[in-house]
Specification:
mainly alpha; 2 helices; two-stranded antiparallel ribbon
């Protein structure tokens, strides 16, 4: 703590009462990376196990036609 005239200057660590080792940044970064990896793994395994379009199997990307029966 420094006193310059009537002003008191306090260092950051003294004002907080402790030092800040930036652990929260590391926790957030690791959590973000793990979330991206988990979501990518889920997406890739779902895409890998999805039925594939083969000629003649009847699977298309088009919706079936709607018929009016009324």
């Amino acid at each position: 703590m420094e006193r310059i005239g009537d002003e008191v200057h306090i260092h950051t660590d003294e004002a907080r009462g402790a030092s800040t080792p930036h652990i929260v940044r590391y926790v957030l970064l690791i959590s973000l990376v793990l979330a991206i990896v988990a979501m990518s793994a889920i997406w890739m395994t779902g895409a890998y196990n999805a039925p594939q379009d083969r000629a003649g199997d009847g699977i298309t990307n088009q919706a079936p036609p709607v018929t009016n029966q009324g």
